[in-house]
Design goal:
Distance between the termini: 23 Å
Oligomer: single chain
Organism: Neotamlana laminarinivorans
Largest sheet: none
Pfam families: DUF5687
Order of helices and strands: HHHHHHHHHHHHHHHHHHHHHHHH
Number of domains: 2
Radius of gyration: 27 Å
Number of helices: 24
Protein name: DUF5687 family protein
Strand content: under 5%
Keywords: Membrane, Transmembrane, Transmembrane helix
Helix content: over 70%
Structural class: mainly alpha
InterPro entries: DUF5687
Shape: globular
């Protein structure tokens, strides 16, 4: 049965509409993983001699045990944001004579093969081999390594439990932050010395291997609890019955002032405010607005005038970037229905453009207090805002015609990479790198003021040519219409 599951997943991968793009992303992630492997391997090789040099009168293994608590906290936080539970498209299987236990065990077993579970071994194994070479007891070293592996798997399954309980909240990252932050605070203020408890536990396992049964029992308990949680969700009608709650439904009458695009604008605003994933675009507005405060108060950055434009583009265009890069994937859940209606595609796209352009203007106005740090900063933000409206809005909308990945709006927003493909990685070049490079070039050749003017002029040209650009963009979307319908119909 496991072989059959693997075959089904392989076919799903190679038949996906985003197959080519997924390969590119996986190659990039593979190189990224290789970097971490080399780093951990290097750490494992220098760990023993480094600890022996710094603490010549102490055993390196005991020193390492004393800091394992901090590693557990860091690993748990890192996994929460980056590791996802391996999933299958199980609904078709639920109509077949396939036992749910087999599906659950396969999914959980697959999670044990995660890269995050193997990564610590690249540091632990070289360290353990060094211990054996130095004459440490074989049984003690092996039991210690086994305990580390068990703790890695414990973190793996504990992460999934935390995710399952936090996925229903808008601020889904808060539980793991509160848990790890609380444990760290208790340890830091010596209320409960977790590093001593964890360190003593590993020391006990090293000295008496029989104690390895303790993490083994904890792992078994977490595994069965995860299996129980997954079984509850393995029903055809799972997720259909939702908690009924009162919705503050504004009629958004003011959108009628925008004419023919009003229905689409109203639809977008409701979509943004009523779904977890899209709400992140609203909260990102605050981050973008305050982004300049990270740099401008520092006198060192006051001299880096060429950098003002990058902050301006990012600060005034944060909603444009965060929302625009997933057009039209935001509507992927009902895209087929939308395309069967008697609507003008250009009006559908213009509503997106209008929403992004308005956000740029609002963010610029709210960012006027940056004048406190100097008129050049405000001037750079003004030029960047015009550039965002005239150029970046059109660029990001054109890039959206290549989107082929579906988005589940009900999933949590924090570090959710669903819908992310090669387009989202590449679009950053014309959005951020190009204006920064262009500004830097003219800043070097002519000066700050002229460079800002050139950037603003490009934006004005884009605004003047808006109608023609929208026709080009609309034609591109129409050409890709059926490809997107087919892609959004898949779970990729």
């Amino acid at each position: 049965m496991i072989t059959q599951f693997l075959k089904l997943e392989w076919k799903s991968f190679i038949r996906s509409a985003s197959f080519g793009k997924s390969i590119g992303i996986k190659i990039f992630m593979g190189l990224f993983a290789l970097y971490f492997i080399v780093m951990f391997l290097g750490a494992g090789l220098v760990l023993y001699p480094g600890l022996k040099k710094e603490f010549p009168n102490q055993e390196p293994v005991y020193i390492l045990n004393s800091v394992l608590f901090y590693w557990i906290l860091i690993d748990l936080v890192f996994r929460f944001f980056f590791q996802k539970l391996p999933v299958m498209v199980v609904k078709p299987l639920l109509t077949l004579p396939v036992k749910r236990n087999k599906i659950v065990n396969y999914v959980l077993g697959k999670s044990a093969l995660s890269f995050f579970n193997f990564l610590p071994l690249f540091a632990i194994v070289p360290f353990s081999v060094t211990l054996l070479v130095k004459g440490y007891a074989v049984v003690s070293v092996i039991s210690w390594v086994l305990a580390i592996v068990l703790v890695v798997l414990i973190i793996n399954f504990l992460n999934f439990i935390i995710e399952s309980f936090s996925a229903e909240t808008d601020f889904s990252f808060l539980p793991v932050i509160l848990i790890t932050g609380g444990l760290y605070a208790l340890n830091h203020f010596n209320i409960v010395s977790f590093n001593t408890i964890i360190g003593s536990g590993f020391n006990a396992i090293y000295n008496n291997p029989i104690y390895v049964i303790v993490p083994l029992l904890i792992l078994m308990g977490l595994y069965f609890y995860n299996a129980k949680l997954l079984k509850k969700k393995l029903f055809l009608d799972s997720g259909l019955k939702e908690k009924v709650k009162e919705v503050n439904a504004s009629n958004l009458e003011w959108t009628k002032n925008f004419g023919d695009i009003a229905p689409f604008l109203k639809l977008d605003l409701k979509l943004i405010w009523r779904n977890k994933r899209t709400k992140s675009s609203v909260w990102m507005l605050v981050m973008g607005l305050l982004y300049g405060l990270v740099f401008y108060p520092n006198p060192k950055y006051q001299e880096m005038e060429w950098f003002f434009v990058f902050i301006g583009v990012f600060s005034t265009g944060i909603f444009l970037i965060n929302f625009g890069q997933f057009i039209p994937a935001w509507d992927s859940g009902y895209y087929k229905l939308l395309m069967t209606q008697n609507i003008k595609y250009e009006e559908y796209l213009k509503s997106k453009f209008t929403l992004m352009a308005i956000s740029v203007c609002i963010l610029f106005v709210l960012g006027i207090p940056y004048l406190f740090f100097g008129w050049k900063i405000l001037f750079a933000h003004f030029a960047a805002a015009i550039y965002n409206v005239g150029v970046n809005t059109h660029v990001i909308m054109y890039g959206g015609s290549f989107n082929r990945k579906k988005i589940n709006l009900s999933q949590k927003a924090a570090f959710n990479y669903q819908g992310t493909g090669a387009v989202q990685w590449l679009i950053g070049i014309p959005l951020l790198i190009f204006p920064l490079g262009l500004f830097g070039l003219f800043y070097y050749l002519t000066g700050f003021e002229i460079a800002c003017v050139i950037l603003a002029v490009l934006g004005i040209i884009g605004i003047v040519l808006h109608q023609k650009l929208m026709k080009i963009i609309t034609n591109k979307y129409l050409q890709s219409k059926y490809k997107m319908i087919d892609a959004f119909n898949q779970d990729n």
